[in-house]
Amino acid sequence: YGHPVAAVQARLAALLGSALESQTRVVAVHAAADGSVADAAHTGRSHVFFIGLVANTEASLRVVTMGPDPDSEPQAAARFRALWGERAELRRFRDSAIRLASVWGAANASPETRATVLPRMAAYLLRRHFAVHGSPEVLTDEDLEVVDKSPPKAALAFAGTGGSLLCLSMRAMEFAETIDSSPSSSFEAALKGLDTLGGELRDLEDQLPLRVLSLHANAPGLRYTSLVPPKPLAPSDEDAYIEPLPVSVEFTSSTRWPDDLMALHKVKSAFLLRLAECYGTAHPGAVTTIADSLLGYAATDGILPPPDACYLDIRHATCGLAFRLTVYVDCEGALLEKRATDLGRVPALAEQAAAAKTAHQR
Questions:
Q1: H-helix or E-strand containing 292?
Q2: Mean per-residue pLDDT, 282-291
Q3: CA distance 16 to 164
Q4: What's the pLDDT at 168?
Q5: Which DSSP letter does residue 339 get?
Q6: What letters, b where the CB count within 10 A reaches 16 and e where it falls short, cover 189-216?
Q7: pTM, full prediction
């Protein structure tokens, strides 16, 4: 390899790539420039490695990693035990098969717990096989107890670091620090709040020109794709700011939507204004705020309104979350496509129309 750092980098990539083959699609290991990150982190250590994992979504959320049958595959079982140490245990499964397995949580583990499985597995392997330490730890108390009890004889001692390496995994640490076991901070709580809001809006059907058909979650925190679950505000935090969660409101179909984009924007603004009035009256504990970035513009001004140019923010009185509502109209996509075609001769305007169409489709 030509250099000890390159040798360790190669061994890190080989170990993680092999051990996490089913949980990841890509494993990348890069050595930081000498002293650049170590000095910034005030660690006093000179070797820093950045490790990136691209997760295989389904496999990375599993709490059980299946191993071989020790009776029929003794050599594979020995390698599995050497890899996972005391994390490797013999288990009987529903099909009566007895196999080695590495277990990282209960079968009914929450999505938040499952999301930490892959970082914990990687951190466990690094600490077990390379004596890697990070602060704060991604590993749980159970992980630390197991990994420190019986370190493997083949653990790599890296010269110049006192037998340990420094691993900075800021995103994983940020996730682990913000995980809260209370129900109020879970994804389910946010989705329940969205369902409650949807029911409340549908109850206003007698006061609206069209009935609310459904709410479509656009926010990552409402689709299990954000780093942490949405954090609600307590009732006492009346003056605190909370980031609204984007949601699209779809009304029942109608042939009376305008076929002009600016006119459609004006009608959507009127719908949201009426929705804010009705919802605020029915739920006085909620806070509603409506905004229109194109207020004062007319159709003759040649403005191409983006789908989110007007929105309604509702801070829910019960769940403590804020939702940003925009109106989804199915015919808007066809209007944007036609406008993009009409403006095709002007590249700048065509790109603007195409971008607005893409935003509508999302």
A1: strand 287-292
A2: 90
A3: 17
A4: 37
A5: H
A6: bbbebbeebbebbeebeeebeeebeebe
A7: 0.54
Q: Is 325 helix (H, G, I), strand (E, B) or coil?
A: strand
Predicted confidence (pLDDT) per residue in 56-71, tens digit: 878 888 889 999 998 8
In one letter, which amino acid is 157? A
- By three-state DSSP, how is residue 150 classified? coil
Reported as type and span, the H/E element at residue 288 is strand 287-292
Strand bridging mode 132-133 / 165-167: parallel
DSSP state letters, 54-117:
EE-HHHHT-SEEE---TTT-HHHHHHHHHHHGGGEEEEE-TTS-EEEEEE-S-TT--HHHHHTH
d(CA 281, CA 271): 16
What is the C-alpha separation between 105 and 48, in angstroms, rounded?
A: 30
DSSP sequence for 16-72: HHHHTTTTEEEEEEEEPPTTHHHHHHT---S-EEEEEEEE-HHHHT-SEEE---TTT
In the chain, the amino acid numbered 289 is T
Give alpha helix (H) positions in the chain. 4-19, 36-41, 57-60, 74-84, 111-115, 117-130, 141-149, 170-178, 187-202, 261-282, 331-342, 347-361
290 in Cβ contact with 311 (< 8 Å): yes
The 3-state DSSP class for residue 131 equals: coil
Residue the block writes with tokens 């009185």 = 317
Q: What is the dihedral sign for C-alpha 101, 103, 109, 112?
A: negative
The model's pLDDT over 300-337, given as tens digits with 9 standing for 90+, comes to 555 667 777 889 999 998 888 999 999 988 887 777 77
C-alpha pair distances (Å), 253 with each of 214, 250, 260, 282, 356: 12, 9, 17, 25, 22
* Across 344-348, average pLDDT: 62
